[in-house]
Amino acid sequence: MTTATAHATDTADAPTLRAPDLRAGHRIALYGGQIVLTVQEATHDPSNDAVLLRLDSVGATAPVRLSSAAVVDLYVEPEQPPEEEEEDHEVTITVELTVTEEVTYGFTAEVEVPSRAAADPEALREYLGENEEAWLDHLNPLSDCESVNERSLDQVRLVLAA
């Protein structure tokens, strides 16, 4: 379970709600509205005077726990877009990433193989492909990497500061 602390709003115009008043569908603004989380479920737990929230954008299955005294900024859609388009500024956030890479390694290893495999390049490739333990300890991922052939970003999750 993630525990978060909500602070009072720094702008007088932004609507706020006490944590016990949050309901499914409310939208919580973070980083001045740069990130918006939608409350999927809100449960008040009087035993520890906290509100447990399940949020759509967190990516974790554990709920976020807010003190019942917490006040959060609500996100309200602007009625009209700003007349002058402001330059989007960057914010610093913490994220957890899962990345898959296809990498090419090149290295030399002294291995023991059956003599029939040593005599035939295709048989050697097949044998070493099925018996990685014969060469895998010789692979140094840091110094033997020749190229990254493909990289994909598989998952991203916003990490809320506790």
Question: How does the SSE layout of this entry go?
Answer:
Elements: E1 2-3, E2 16-18, E3 27-30, E4 35-45, E5 50-55, E6 64-67, E7 71-73, E8 95-105, H1 115-119, H2 121-130, E9 145-158
Parallel strand pairs: 1-6
Antiparallel strand pairs: 2-7, 3-4, 4-5, 5-6, 8-9
Give your account of this protein's structure:
The protein has 2 helices and 9 strands. The N and C termini lie close together (10 Å). Strands 1-6-5-4-3 form a 5-stranded mixed beta sheet, with no helix packed on it. It has a two-stranded antiparallel sheet with strand order 2-7. It folds into 2 domains: 2-73, SH3 type barrels (Roll), CATH 2.30.30; 97-158, no CATH class. A hairpin with a 4-residue loop joins β4 and β5. The chain is elongated and about 75 Å long. It has helices spanning 115-119, 121-130; strands spanning 2-3, 16-18, 27-30, 35-45, 50-55, 64-67, 71-73, 95-105, 145-158. The chain has 162 residues and is mainly β. 9% of the residues lie in helices and 36% in strands.
